Amino acid sequence: MEQKKQTYQPRTLETNLPFSWKRLFFQWEWMLLLILIAVLLLGSYVSPYFLNYPSLRDGTMVFLDKALIVFPMAMIMIMRDIDISVGSTVALSSVVMATLYTSAGLPMEVAIIACLATGAICGLINGLLIVKFKELSAVIVTLGTMILYRGIAYIILEDQAAGGFPEWFGFFGWGYVFGIPFLLIVFAALALLFGIVLHKTTFGRKVFAIGNNPTASRFSGIKVDKVKVIVFMLAGLLAAVTAIFLTSRMGSTRPNIATMYELDIIAMAALGGVSTAGGKGRVLGVVIAVFIIGYLQYGLGLINLPSQIFLIIVGALLILSVAIPKLGGMMKRK
Amino acid sequence: QGAPESSGTSGGESNDGPKKYAFVFKNTGNPYGEKMLDGFESTIKELGGEVILRSPDQPTAEGQIQIIEQLITQKVDVIAVAGNDPDALEPALKKAKDQGIKVLSVDSAVNAASRDIHVNQANPERIGRVQIEAVSEMIGGEGQIAVLSATSQATNQNTWIEWMKKELEKEDYKDIELVKVAYGDDLRDKSVSETEALLKSYPDLKAIIAPTTVGIAAAGKVLTDKGLEGQIALTGLGLPSEMATYIKSGVSPWMYLWNPIDVGKGAAYAAYELGEGNITGELGEKVDLRDLGEVEVVEDGEGTQIMLGDPFKFDETNIDEWKDVY
Amino acid sequence: MTNEFVLEMKGISKAFPGVKALNDMQFQLKKGEIHALMGENGAGKSTFIKIITGVHQPTEGEMLLVGEKVSFQNPKQAQQHGIAAIYQHVTSYPDLSVTENIFMNHEIRHQVWKTLNWREMHKQARQLLRELGSSLDPKAQMNTLSVAQQQIVEIAKAISTKAKIIIMDEPTAALTARESEELYRITEKLRDEGTSIIFISHRFEDMYRLASRVTVLRDSNYIGTWDVEDISNEKLIVAMVGREINQIFPDKKTSAGETVLEVKNLCKLGEFEDISFSIKSGEILGMTGLVGAGRTEVCQAIFGITAFDKGEILLSGRSIRNKNPQAAMNNGIGYLAEDRLDQGLLVDWSIEKNITLANLSDLSSFTWIHRDKEKRQAKEFGEKVHIKATSIFDSVNSLSGGNQQKVAVAKLLTKELKVILLDEPTKGVDIGAKAAIYEIVQQLAEAGYAVLFVSSEMPEILGMSDRILVLKEGRIAADFVNRGITQEMILEAAMGEEQVQEKSG
Amino acid sequence: MEIKTENLDLEKKNPLALFYQFRELGLFFFIVILCIGVQLRNPSFLTGENILDMATNTSILVILALGMMIVLITRGIDLSIGAVIALSGMLTAQLVAANPTVNPFLCLLIGTIIGALCGMVIGLLVAKVGLLPIIATLALMNIFRGLTFLVSDGEWVSSYQMSESFVEIATGTFLGLNHLIWIAVIFCLVFFYFLNYTRTGRQIYAVGSNPQSAAVSGIKQGRILFLVYTIMGGLSGLCGVLWVSKFASAQGDTASGYELTVIAACILGGVSIAGGSGKLAGVLLGAILLGILNNALPLLNVSPFWQNGIQGFIILLAVIVNAIVKRRVERIHLLRRAG
Ligand SMILES: Nc1ncnc2c1ncn2[C@@H]1O[C@H](COP(=O)(O)OP(=O)(O)OP(=O)(O)O)[C@@H](O)[C@H]1O
Ligand SMILES: Nc1ncnc2c1ncn2[C@@H]1O[C@H](COP(=O)(O)OP(=O)(O)OP(=O)(O)O)[C@@H](O)[C@H]1O
Ligand SMILES: [Mg+2]
Ligand SMILES: [Mg+2]
């Protein structure tokens, strides 16, 4: 017995890391924060209307609607998947809601629930197709459903617009609570919720695990398919929430709303440090990235730059922000 | 539900210096729109105002709402908008009106509640009817015709098509049959496919009306490539520069359009009058459009509008003058 | 001066950020010799050969090829100097054909047209494979082959470059005894043709069988080079692990209890048929067979990863059906996957998160993860299996193969289990770590687990098991009680009589 | 000592290997059935003229899909091609407008060079800086589109400004076939040769199939990636010229969103997003299916409001049917092997 103990040396494993400034500061979020500050300074420099509370506050209402989807999109990208059907899901849920209210004459509350259900079902279909037909990959499936969902929206509403919602419905897009836009409050709440779910709970841990190694995750007893379906459903659901806010802001809807949203959303997530190679990303980074892109666009709008310049600036920002750390890493290695 | 605190007390009045006139077009890079913006810009400058020209990069209402928000923050005095959607801009434009900003729509109307007045490039009834008259003349009052429109939800196009159908009910056109309304979505490739499909599905087709600049150019191209000039007539609304080739080759004997520069000008005068408080958009008011003449504010559904004359006819005789203009 | 050595490495050091992987390494390779390189997991063997092949560049030291100083900036240069390598983790192109895998980057082209000469390449590939004793179809797609077949393709690839030096990093890790035998034959043939071979393995049999000299590494340091005849087994182990290992296999103290797992007539089309066995609590059931015999498939079917067509699984007399791994684990069955990089571990993650991954529900309330508990558990189980690392936050990537395997074992132990299925738990693991794993397995059995121990290595099957199950082509070929059983008896069952006769004949 | 080794070998042909030869079969049958269906509804579908029209209209898609295929094989993606088409088309059109005598071949060359330059930027970012292709091309899509608007300053180039010879590029015929068809056919042949009979072509597959192993076998991965994006860019640039010539009009929003159509053609044709696999025949079928849909839906007099939905449905149906057929065949082979 004694001899056996000697076959190896006992070792201890450290469970506390010594404090390190490097670890604290070498984080993507700091870089993003710097960019955000730069954007705010730039904004106040170029436009006198930019840097004051009402302006910054109302500015958020311009870009936060689509930003709601960025959270589940981040989850999807962490799982090495992608969902390019979210814009179409927004359109379909919105059209369903408006049609049920205007044509079917259902109460608005019911129409809103139907809108959420539509979004969730769209997400569910994406998720189910993806896990049932693994050989297809998420890009293919959501490319197909992207065309399909918008197609259905066209079938329902054809060339009509549907609107004339009750007065109170405008609250979603235009309302304030204690002087803070309702949309901003919802965004903050969702950020907190998704931050907790992704970083503090078993569900979030599983999402990261799947992004890192789906096979090993399955072998470790994670129900990979179930997690995936849930996350895609969440994306659909939040697309529906976006549909509510967007429809409320516009007061009416059409089948062509929210075109190209998916690309904006993916850009926000990517700038926020979510890697489409999977397994990486933080909600905090994504939140900062949303404000960077949003305020940049808003600020440039205030000085009436043509929107094509804005395209170039966002593109360049995206590349620089992702490339600079890589280049830095390359330098260090040399 | 807290009431929104207004981000600035009022629009124009408190501002000294030149007044700010903003024009929001449907999207950037639209040739027709660019010309309209040119007309607006030069006129406002002449009148001594400050001009802001903005368009989203996609032709969506969402993009226009964003821009309108930004214009409100900048405390402009007048917003002129060519709406991507008649209703969807209502909340944003109402917010602008609440803050004392004058709103007018140009080219594509927004609904009555969200504007003070609409500047109509031409009388939609005339636009519709004149194209049927033209087609009838081209095909000798007899045969199948088809319409190639833009997107299925373009409001002005749909209005014109309605008027075309009304015109067709007349006894004179009893031998003309409208076989199909196709939609090319204002995309070149789609418009080409749609045109080709029309030719195949309706071998006896005599004419195509394309009340959209992209559609008519695409159709002109298809008819040219297939060598169908003289067999199938093409008319509609097109840009002289894009249509010059086809008008000269006879593919399209003639077509119509108003002068977008003049539309921009008219919008600028109307905006100026609104901004100066000379008019309010009430029915019956007279608006002085300087060299475009004086027009009366007339009814348009629940709102009011002014109209800028008949569509202009472009044919062999005058196309060369115009093709370099726009 | 003529040079005795085709390859000479002097004072090679290599530092990775934070890790010194090699320190002052010395190495000499003669023409036409098979030179074994041995050492514990993480000793630096793979790093060393990657330096030779130009994948890594050394931080210090020089390299002489036939007396001439060289330095390779990339693998292509090493290839051009006649160095070929078969890497530890098979590096094939799964979507491409066998021929393409063999000739990638040194394709045969038409003299005139400079286009790829497929016919010639297929022909030569077939030829090469035949020389290696295989009649694989050169047009077959790589990912349809078994690991052993892929290994053969890798060897064919190395030979096809007409290399003067061939390096094999643990080529036998995935092979069974019989396939290893085939590999020995090929290797010897190459040596006889004048090729120099560096051979890395954790199996002593490989070294004794093949090598004429052996170089030992320990903790990134060069320990020494010996002629194989001159060094005893004990001395070699001391050189490798720095201390004596008196006993590799723990004493068996079987006290089998109740039957825990019973498998009845399990069938899966095309994979296995009619598998029946039972394991008692405290018992270690060895399972062996040739590659592709279906052992992994059986384990995975029991664990709920793949579905089976017919049959029944009973746990403590109760029939269970595991729809997925989660269900299996809840039923008390654990599985250590054969391929730890692909199926066992999340290599970018820390040791801690890997260990706790399967057991998150116990570490959380209302799905909120308690970090303290998590750290404590990771430490407890990490130490239990003696992972060699500084902290639980080290990434699994940075560990050597053996230590990675220990992480996978630790992960398994966090769940309350009754049955554990170990699929090749010592694959690619050094002698010290092997002893440690054997001991852990024995302790598990003593603690009342029913253990299924799958292995291709005869000594460990014989040394560990209470009973031995031999699979052949998806069927049970023999079921021995491990008393007086010899390697020959097992091989005979695994291969079938005809082949054994031929072998001895 | 001689050991027999049947056990290690594939005496029977491996089931997967067999099926891979017929991987496009499902798609092919799908197209045949679709064609029959359409023909029954509208007899003008399978007329010579319509088939030629269809081929002409699908040519550009085919050319682009070839490029996208090799990008996808290397595990990449290129979302910027629509913008590159617009940029090169606009610049070339401006050149022609300013200088009507310029030789059409020169135009094609210039467009290709402009596109290749754009592709090189992407290639550098992906291969040298190590950006993920989806991010890099998403960003550059914005930038190229913005540049197009900037260089055109909102103006457009229309048919009367284009010389006869320039418009001829895409409308002229040779031996009764439109030039576009010829160009597409030539590119198909070149790509077939390139992918199957050149070293570089095979290295593209190698890099996509297993980047690590490509690195240890000494393949210069960076160079392959750079090359692939440059080729894609060059093809986009070329198609920009063809596009402008075909429609005799160059505008800022030319081909916007077209990248998705091209990607759809590739994945319909069985190119794996995960890299490493993809065959020319499949991509061709994928592009043809989309071409047929574009042509057939208007011919069938399908309501414009239904076209989007039907198209999405058919794309999904096609990939799912293909996946199911593939599984079936695998299962049959398994049975045969077991039996
Ligand atoms: N790319 C790398 N970055 C950082 N550390 C590395 C890297 N590659 C290897 N190491 C470290 O270098 C040491 C030697 O590793 P190496 O793979 O050479 O060991 P080995 O002797 O081949 O072990 P095994 O027998 O398990 O294969 C290990 O501690 C390992 O963690
Ligand atoms: N000679 C072969 N031909 C084709 N496929 C094979 C061959 N050998 C193995 N396989 C594949 O391997 C599977 C069975 O191998 P499995 O991994 O279950 O066996 P194993 O005994 O665990 O072998 P290993 O030692 O490789 O783990 C089969 O389903 C088959 O797909
Ligand atoms: Mg190693
Ligand atoms: Mg196995």
From TrEMBL, chain A:
The keyword Transport applies. It is found in: Cell membrane. CDD domains: TM_PBP1_transp_AraH_like (cd06579). Its main location: membrane. The chain crosses the membrane at residues 30-51, 63-79, 86-104, 110-131, 138-157, 177-198, 227-246, 258-276, 283-303, 309-328. Keywords: Cell inner membrane, Cell membrane, Membrane, Transmembrane, Transmembrane helix, Transport. It is a multi-pass membrane protein. PANTHER family: ABC TRANSPORTER PERMEASE PROTEIN YPHD-RELATED-RELATED (PTHR32196), AUTOINDUCER 2 IMPORT SYSTEM PERMEASE PROTEIN LSRD (PTHR32196:SF71). This is Autoinducer 2 import system permease protein LsrD. It comes from Terribacillus saccharophilus. The lineage of its organism: Bacteria, Bacillati, Bacillota, Bacilli, Bacillales.
From TrEMBL, chain C:
The lineage of its organism: Bacteria, Bacillati, Bacillota, Bacilli, Bacillales. It comes from the Bacteria. Residues 7-244, 255-498 form the ABC transporter domain. GO terms for molecular function: ATP binding. Keywords: ATP-binding, Cell membrane, Membrane, Nucleotide-binding, Repeat, Sugar transport, Translocase, Transport. This is D-xylose ABC transporter ATP-binding protein. The keyword Signal does not apply. It holds the Pfam family ABC_tran.
From TrEMBL, chain D:
It comes from the Bacteria. The chain crosses the membrane at residues 20-39, 51-72, 79-97, 103-127, 134-152, 172-195, 224-243, 255-273, 280-299, 305-325. Keywords: Cell membrane, Membrane, Transmembrane, Transmembrane helix. InterPro entries: ABC_transp_permease. Its main location: membrane. It is a multi-pass membrane protein. Signal peptide: none annotated. The keyword Transmembrane applies. It is found in: Cell membrane. It holds the Pfam family BPD_transp_2. The keyword Hydrolase does not apply. This is Branched-chain amino acid ABC transporter permease. It comes from Terribacillus saccharophilus. The lineage of its organism: Bacteria, Bacillati, Bacillota, Bacilli, Bacillales.
